Description:
alpha+beta; Mac-2 Binding Protein; 2 domains; 4-stranded antiparallel sheet; 3-stranded antiparallel sheet; 2 helices; 26% strand; repeat; signal; DMBT1 protein; glycoprotein; SRCR
Amino acid sequence: CLGRLELFHNGSWGTVCDDGFDLRDAAVVCRQLGCGDAISFHGRALFGEGTGPVLLDELACIGDEESLAQCSHQGLGIHDCSHKEDAGLRSVTGKTAPQGPPCDHASPSASPDMSLRLVDGDGLCLGRLELFHNGSWGTVCDDGFDLRDAAVVCRQLGCG
Length: 160
């Protein structure tokens, strides 16, 4: 419920350009994923640049649509963007996991160029803690890491 927005189309994942992307668009995505209300939307590849095709540009949702398929846009694959303009968002998460493909669980931290994720776990809120900084993912050392630190991470990731 937080991270770069990607769509699965014709067998591959693609991104959404930040041109015109706003809180109404984010609200539709959050609703479609079952993530609750949208808190914020982000552009300029805040959650990293995607690698597949740019699939949507100039997305224009009214805000009450049930899915992105009901929103207007220039057409799938028609864009004037690069991955430096990939859109992302943040939603309020409930106690149940969203339906659909697994989430990356990236989360903004004190610095706008850092994100957190849990990887190689058996659930949405279980796994090895990694931090994205200066363009790459790295692990977090466990020296001094305790339950208070874990509580902060869990809250930041929307895991309770």
